[in-house]
Amino acid sequence: MSDIDNDTDAPEISAEIPTVHDCIAGESCGQTVVFPTREQYVDLVKKLADDGYSMIIDLCGVDYLEYMDRPLPDDIVAERFEVVVNLLDITHRRRIRLRVQVPEAEPTIPTLFDVHPGAEAYERETYDMFGVVFTEHPDMTRILMPEDWVGHPLRKDYAVGKIPVQFKGAHS
């Protein structure tokens, strides 16, 4: 039995179709996993912050170019990209994971900066590596790659080994 099942302060999960604040939910390795749409994403994070999930501990992108048939809840349509967010409730010692599907044709998602300012660097890294744009982000610029770098190196279709890595200040 998971911590969520015993914790009366946990977000309510219905018995029929598991949901958290009207978003489809499930469980993986004893952790609640919620699948909000891009439209539900920021509102869900605000509600979870009100529930005590006051710290963002990770936000990353995933490119599922070659794994589009991955297991997802029935009502969730698999998209090429996912943004994965892990939130922590320090008071109740709980974690919750959000998995948001982001389509290749429109790789955008709202920023969490207004709710969790600590998301700023995570979102820039996800943009830099995967090309997912966080709308309304205060500084949507590259964070790891040079500003003139073309492409997003962690995309599965990014050409490997054709462009030499250049380090700032290195002499050849």
UniProtKB/TrEMBL annotation:
Organism encoding this protein: Ilumatobacter fluminis
Membrane topology type: Peripheral membrane protein
Gene3D superfamilies named in the record: NADH:ubiquinone oxidoreductase, 30kDa subunit (3.30.460.80)
Similarity section: Belongs to the complex I 30 kDa subunit family.
Stated name of the protein: NADH-quinone oxidoreductase subunit C
Function field: NDH-1 shuttles electrons from NADH, via FMN and iron-sulfur (Fe-S) centers, to quinones in the respiratory chain. The immediate electron acceptor for the enzyme in this species is believed to be a menaquinone. Couples the redox reaction to proton translocation (for every two electrons transferred, four hydrogen ions are translocated across the cytoplasmic membrane), and thus conserves the redox energy in a proton gradient.
Highest taxon listed in the record's lineage: Bacteria
GO CC annotation terms, alphabetical: plasma membrane
EC number(s) reported in the record: 7.1.1.-
GO molecular function annotations of the record: NADH dehydrogenase (quinone) (non-electrogenic) activity; NADH dehydrogenase (ubiquinone) activity; quinone binding
UniProt-listed NCBIfam families: NuoC_fam
InterPro entries: NADH_DH_suC, NADH_quin_OxRdtase_su_C/D-like, NADH_UbQ_OxRdtase_30kDa_su
